[in-house]
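Long-time lurker, first post. I've been practising inverse folding by hand and with some scripts of my own, and I keep getting stuck on stretches where the C-alpha cells seem ambiguous. Below is the full C-alpha cell string for one chain I'm working on. Before anyone asks, I'm not after the true native sequence, just a reasonable design that respects the backbone. If someone could post their per-position residues I'd love to compare against what I wrote down in my notebook.
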C-alpha cells in the first residue's frame, strides 16, 4: 500500500510542496520583510527578466545537449525526462556533497535511455566538455584583463588538465 501511495503523482506532489514550504520557511524565517521589500523596489525588472530568460535558455540548452549526448536511434530520451533528470541532479548537488546529483541524473534518465552506464558516461563526457570550455574561457580572460597572479597559475593548471582530459576523450 505504501509503494502504491509513493507511485501516486498526487502524493509526490504533496510531499514536494510540503518540502518546498518547509525550506522556504527556514530560508525566510529571519528575513526582515520591510528591508527585502525596499531592496526589491529598486530592482530593474528588465534586468531581472533577462536573467530569468538566460537561466531558462541555459536549462533548455543543457537539456538538448544532454539529449544529443544520449542519442540512441532505437530509444530516444524524451525532453521531459532529460529535463527532470537535470533539475533533480542540480537540486541534489545543492544538498548532497560529492556531486551525487550527477549520479542521480544518470540513474533517473538511464531507465528510459540506452542504459544507466551509458547515461553515466554521457554525464562524464559533459563534465569533460565543461572543463575544456572553462579552461578556454579562463585562458582567454588572462589575455583580456589583468587578473591576480594566482589566477594565472590556476588558469594554466586548469588548461593542462583540460588538455589531458580532452585528448583522452578524443582518443576514446
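-- Answer (accepted) --
I ran through it position by position. Result:
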Amino acid at each position: 500500500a505504501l509503494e502504491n501511495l509513493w507511485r501516486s503523482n498526487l502524493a509526490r506532489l504533496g510531499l514536494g510542496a510540503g518540502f518546498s514550504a518547509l525550506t522556504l520557511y527556514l530560508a525566510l524565517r529571519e528575513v526582515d520583510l520591510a528591508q527585502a521589500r525596499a531592496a526589491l523596489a529598486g530592482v530593474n525588472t528588465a534586468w531581472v527578466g533577462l536573467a530569468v530568460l538566460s537561466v531558462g535558455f541555459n536549462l533548455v540548452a543543457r537539456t538538448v545537449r544532454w539529449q544529443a549526448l544520449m542519442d540512441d536511434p532505437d530509444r530516444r530520451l524524451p525532453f521531459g525526462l532529460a529535463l527532470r533528470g537535470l533539475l533533480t541532479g542540480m537540486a541534489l548537488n545543492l544538498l548532497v556533497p560529492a556531486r551525487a546529483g550527477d549520479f542521480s541524473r544518470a540513474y533517473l534518465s538511464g531507465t528510459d535511455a540506452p542504459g544507466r552506464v551509458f547515461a553515466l558516461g554521457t554525464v562524464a563526457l559533459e563534465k569533460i566538455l565543461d572543463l575544456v570550455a572553462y579552461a578556454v574561457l579562463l585562458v582567454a580572460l588572462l589575455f583580456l584583463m589583468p587578473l591576480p597572479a594566482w589566477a594565472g597559475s590556476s588558469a594554466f593548471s586548469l588548461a593542462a588538465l583540460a588538455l589531458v582530459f580532452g585528448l583522452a576523450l578524443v582518443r576514446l
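A couple of notes from the structure itself: The radius of gyration is 21 Å. The mean pLDDT is 84. Happy to go over any region you disagree with.
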